[in-house]
Design goal:
The complex is a heterodimer of chains A (about 250) and B (about 425).
Chain A lengths: L3 E12 L2 E12 L3 E5 L6 H9 L4 E10 L2 E2 L5 H7 L1 E4 L11 H15 L7 H14 L4 H5 L8 H15 L3 E5 L7 H14 L5 E5 L13 E6 L2 E6 L1 H10 L2 H4 L2
Parallel strand pairs in A: 3-8, 3-9, 6-7, 7-8
Antiparallel strand pairs in A: 1-2, 1-4, 4-5, 9-10
Helix pairs in contact in A: 2-3, 4-6, 6-7
Chain B lengths: L1 H16 L6 H16 L17 H4 L26 E6 L2 E6 L5 E5 L7 H6 L10 H9 L4 E5 L8 E9 L7 E3 L2 E6 L4 E10 L5 E11 L4 E9 L5 E10 L4 E9 L3 E10 L5 E10 L4 E10 L5 E10 L4 E5 L1 E4 L7 E10 L5 E4 L2 E4 L5 E9 L3 H8 L5 H17 L5 H12 L10
Parallel strand pairs in B: 1-5, 4-7, 5-8, 6-9, 7-9, 8-10, 9-11, 10-12, 11-13, 12-14, 13-15, 14-16, 15-17, 15-18, 16-19, 17-20, 18-21, 19-22
Antiparallel strand pairs in B: 1-2, 3-4
The chains are: A alpha/beta (about 250), B alpha/beta (about 425).
């Protein structure tokens, strides 16, 4: 029997005074991989940000239930501790904040929320080194400031490193594949793929079919003008690649 | 103007209490005291660019009592930075109380000793030019115990390390005025590290008006740290002049916590070719504190490089200033200079006046300057919170991160740890409205 991780019902949301999401509904069960595609400005990133609790976005109406809890009442850090993770489209630079300190504090917060003891420095180093190695982040990067002076690809790898460390129940990936060269795309895709299991779910937002060769979705949804207009399986992505989005508006 | 009179009367009382026997120090005092009595005090004047944001009335109006003139008072009970490998001079209320010299290359002399040569006399005060140096003149008039420190380790592989503790101790409820004065002569090819630590006794009331002169001779190298550990209610005025000779190398790092009123007037003078100077500063103000950084570089000689990198964190209703000038004189060709001041303003009632300026009188140079002031970015905090950090944790980490850029320049591990414990950990977190 499938267990629901995320249930979005009739979601309306806006940025400043512009309405972006217009009655969107979506259900994600445990173990499922969903992909959202759609033209620029259709509301994909808004959905990701509303889910993660970005204070610049307002949820006007509707309901979001995450693992049985009303998400709208939870602060962004509580959402993260409860198991929601957003890999940012544009990861933010944190001047003067060391990677190690940031990652350790993040994991400690989550563990504390779940009633677990923080890892010792050695335990944490072991875990960190293992994951950093997998996404090709060298120990030099761990000593640096978060995302400061990182290339586009390095920032995205860093998002995947954080995903692996925090091991969320729901990973939302907002155009994580954008701007990556082929090698980086492979590393990032592999990272997502090895994270994904029967115990968690993935919501992958992308413009390109190519990442879906590595991370094979169970469902593909198309968003247009703030709503999901059609859903299908992985073949829908191939069809979009071939035909674009126009045929959906005239459908 | 009554407060001017009262203050001047207090200064004269100190002057009269000092040993008037003929000496270099007393000659210096006489001429300075005469000049001040003629000109009056350097109080706030309209149109005076150097003192535009700092009103010295705040210093003058305090309660000074002619019955309370600073005396030698023990400082032992005060906790401060101690590093075993450093020679230490302890100056209390303007007088050298004791010293622990571990290094034969460091020698101290006292201007009251009358054992100085003509060269010594010529050297003393030589970095001061009298321009906008009214507070240094006030210091000269009543400095009790001017000290010359010679450091010459040109024949040694080891760096000479010196800590100068400047204590201010007053157990009464009226203010005292201390006037420490130090001249440091660093011989050619010497390599030196100096920590200048200004410390106040618990909640003590005092005004410290200190002068530090440093002469960096040919091919010498100095890393200078300045720590401000003065009390909340104190007034701290400091005039520092550093003269750079050929190929000398200076790194100056100033770490300041705000007081009732403080002003750091630093001028670096590039007197000879190919010197390098890097002036870093971190200041932190809160409550109703007022802190004025007046940081100047006077490029006289050609082929010199200078960098100014100051950062401030302002909270409460405090007021901080970054002012000063990079002056590139005619003849200072191939100067390479950059100055920057960045501020994190955490409270709507805190105020920063950041005004770096550049005067160039020669063509062939590279120079730039910049200043910023702002609060923590909403998106940055959101990113951190999306990784599970609370609002308070995220803001604390960002504020500390802002400070770390300057603290990271400290290579001395003991001092680095001291700064983490006494500055970074005590930085506020910020309550955001979002």
């Amino acid at each position: 029997m499938s267990k629901t991780i995320l249930e979005i019902k009739n979601l309306h949301a806006s940025v400043e005074d512009t309405k972006i999401l217009k009655g969107l509904s979506l259900t994600i069960n445990i173990g499922e991989k969903h992909t959202i595609m759609g033209p620029n400005g259709s509301g994909k990133s808004t959905l990701a940000n509303v889910l993660a609790g970005n204070p610049s976005y307002t949820m006007n109406s509707g309901e979001i239930i995450f693992m049985g809890q009303n998400l709208n009442e939870m602060q962004p850090d509580i959402r993260a501790c409860a198991g929601l993770f957003l890999a940012f489209q544009y990861p933010v630079e944190l001047p003067g904040v060391r990677m190690w300190q940031f990652l350790k504090s993040s994991l400690d917060s989550k563990r504390e929320y779940n009633g677990e003891k923080p890892l010792s420095t050695r335990e944490f180093d072991n875990v960190l080194n293992e994951y950093a190695d997998k996404v090709g982040i060298s120990s030099d990067f761990i000593k640096r400031n978060v995302n400061e002076g990182f290339s586009g690809g390095e920032k995205k790898r860093n998002e995947i490193l954080q995903l692996s460390l925090l091991n969320p129940k729901l990973a939302i990936l907002d155009e994580t594949d954008s701007g990556l060269d082929i090698d980086a795309l492979k590393v990032v895709s592999k990272g997502i793929d090895s994270f994904s299991s029967d115990e968690n779910s993935v919501l992958l937002i992308t413009h390109y079919q190519r990442i879906l060769n590595y991370v094979i979705p169970d469902f593909v949804h198309v968003m247009m003008d703030g709503n999901i207009v059609t859903s299908g399986d992985k073949t829908l992505a191939l069809e979009l690649e071939e035909k674009g989005y126009d045929w959906l508006t005239t459908k | 103007m009554d407060s001017d009179k009262t203050f001047l009367n207090y200064v004269n009382t100190i002057y009269n209490s000092l040993n008037s026997e003929e000496s270099i120090a007393s000659n210096l005092r006489n001429s300075s005291m005469q000049s001040i009595n003629q000109k009056g005090l350097p109080t706030h004047r309209k149109g005076n660019e150097e003192w535009k944001y700092t009103n010295l009335n705040r210093m003058i109006e305090l309660n000074y009592s002619i019955d309370n003139i600073a005396n030698k008072i023990a400082y032992e009970s005060i906790n401060t930075l101690e590093i075993d490998t450093f020679s230490t001079l302890n100056i209390s209320n303007g007088e050298l109380i004791d010293s622990k010299i571990l290094d034969d290359n460091i020698k101290t002399r006292n201007l009251l000793s009358n054992t100085l040569t003509k060269e010594d006399i010529a050297m003393f005060n030589s970095t001061l030019d009298g321009e906008n140096e009214d507070m240094a003149e006030l210091n000269s008039a009543i400095c009790k115990d001017p000290i010359i420190i010679d450091i010459n380790n040109s024949n040694s592989e080891e760096k000479s390390k010196l800590m100068i503790n400047i204590f201010n101790i007053n157990n009464s409820d009226s203010y005292i005025l201390n006037s420490p004065k130090i001249f440091i002569n660093i011989a050619g090819k010497s390599n030196v590290e100096i920590i200048e630590n200004h410390i106040g006794g618990n909640n003590n009331l005092y005004t410290s008006n200190s002068v530090l002169e440093i002469l960096l001779n040919k091919k010498s190298k100095l890393v200078h740290y300045r720590l401000l550990e003065d009390t909340d209610e104190s007034i701290h005025i400091n005039t520092t002049r550093i003269k750079l000779m050929d190929e000398s190398n200076l790194q100056s790092n100033a770490f300041s916590k705000g007081t009732k009123l403080s002003r750091y007037d630093l001028k670096v003078i590039t007197s000879a070719e190919n010197s390098y100077s890097e002036l870093n500063g971190l200041y932190f103000t809160s409550k109703k504190q007022h802190l004025d950084n007046y940081i100047n570089i006077d490029h006289i000689a050609p082929h010199c490089t200078s960098r100014i990198n100051y950062k401030g964190i302002l909270n409460g209703e405090s007021h901080a200033i970054f002012g000063g000038t990079v002056l590139v004189r005619k003849g200072a060709i191939k100067t390479n200079s950059h100055q920057s001041d960045k501020n994190l303003v955490l409270s709507p009632k805190a105020e920063i006046d950041s005004k770096p300026s550049l005067y160039i009188f020669v063509d062939d140079i590279l120079a730039g300057h910049g200043a910023t002031a702002g609060n923590i970015d909403v998106n940055t905090v959101y990113y951190m919170r999306s990784r599970g950090l609370s609002l308070e944790q995220a803001s604390k980490m960002l504020i500390a991160g802002f400070a770390m850029e300057i603290i990271d320049k400290v290579e001395n591990n003991n001092l680095f740890d001291f700064l983490l414990e006494n500055y970074v950990k005590k930085l506020p977190s910020y309550k955001f409205d979002f």
